[in-house]
TrEMBL record:
Membrane-spanning parts: none
Name this protein carries in UniProt: ABC transporter substrate-binding protein
UniProt signal peptide: 1-23
Source organism per UniProt: Candidatus Allocopromorpha excrementigallinarum
Statement: the UniProt record of this protein carries the keyword Ion transport: no
UniProt keyword list: Signal
Pfam families in UniProt: NMT1_2
Length: 325
């Protein structure tokens, strides 16, 4: 019963979060040239896409392509875009990507993008571990089925013996809204990622709740790049251009962190020096090699987060150029 409820909630959320992508359009443009749409969400986890966009790296590797960049509000919305054929490439959390592939959304993982710090933050001095969270305490995270939800479930299984022990504590909120609610005291906890964990740590009365590090160590995949099956199969040269562009963007960020901080700081409304300190956090890792994806997929399959059978290997989830696990 619990499995069915999770699946039903995730399906309902997908419908709610779906957005119209009629303005986007993969494939050939009306002028006869090739066009692809790249969809992503907000935050420094998607920094490689910002570099690709700013430096026109896809265009560098594939002459004549027109790249449209679409910023959407959830992995569910991006999934809708792939399902309708309006999105060709996307960046999303590992968990929604696993759900999408196993549910038949026509894409696979094309590369890793980034790992970022994930933490449970609290404004209640009495909450220092998951065991301290009471039935009336609320935990803000972005949505049911998100990577934050899966991480909470993984930590709950490890510490409390039940992956779903804290499901009823969850309140779905965007990262910014969750941070505002945590600071105001409207919720007791928030499970979030960068840059919000950095901003919240600087607030008086906010502290970290232990529990995530043991189940999802620093460096494990957070955001992956996915590409449509049609792009991979019908235009392998353009697919490879996108992969090469991402690889160059990741290398550039790692080798030019001060310049990257200048590029990214305005979007997060901080100065470049603050952004540089965030980029230098050991848990902030930009790499095209996946890490921990199969561990998460197995956990999701075993605990009712997947409607269909879970993958048996990375080959079920990723294209053959992807390195990692």
């Amino acid at each position: 019963m619990k499995r069915k409820k999770i699946i039903a909630a995730a399906a309902a959320l997908s419908v709610i979060m779906a957005v119209s992508l009629s303005a986007c359009g993969g494939g050939d443009s009306s002028e006869g040239g090739e066009q692809i749409t790249v969809a992503h969400q907000y935050g420094m986890a998607y920094a490689p896409f910002e570099v690709m966009k700013e430096q026109k790296l896809i265009e560098k590797y594939y002459d004549g392509v027109e790249v449209e960049w679409a910023t959407l509000n959830s992995g569910s919305a991006i999934n809708e875009g792939f399902a309708s054929g309006d999105v060709d490439v996307g960046g999303m959390g590992v968990a929604p990507a696993i759900t999408g592939v196993t549910s038949g959304v026509p894409y696979k993982i094309a590369a890793n993008m980034s790992a970022q710090p994930h933490k449970i933050m609290s404004n209640d001095d009495s909450i220092n571990s998951l065991a301290d969270i009471g039935s009336d305490d609320r935990i803000a995270l972005v949505n049911i089925g998100s990577i934050q939800h899966i991480l909470l479930a993984m930590a709950s299984e490890a510490e409390l013996g039940d992956a779903h022990a804290l499901d009823n504590n969850i309140v779905a909120m965007s990262h910014p809204d969750g941070m505002s609610s945590l600071i105001s005291g409207s919720v007791e906890c928030q499970l979030t990622t960068s840059p919000y964990v950095f901003k919240e740590a600087a607030e008086e009365g906010i502290h970290e709740v232990e529990g995530l590090q043991q189940v999802w160590p620093d460096g494990n995949s957070f955001i992956v790049m996915v590409a449509s099956n049609s792009l991979y199969e019908e235009n392998p040269e353009l697919y490879q251009a996108v992969v090469s562009a991402l690889e160059e963007a990741v290398t550039w960020i790692n080798e030019n962190k001060e310049e990257a901080a200048e590029l990214l700081c305005e979007a997060e409304d901080v100065d470049a020096q603050t952004m540089l300190s965030w980029l230098n956090d050991p848990a902030c890792v930009y790499s095209t090699e996946t890490k921990g994806v199969m561990d998460m997929a197995v956990f999701m399959a075993e605990n009712g987060f997947l409607e269909n059978e879970g993958p048996s290997s990375m080959e079920d989830l990723a294209f053959d150029n992807v390195q990692g696990n």
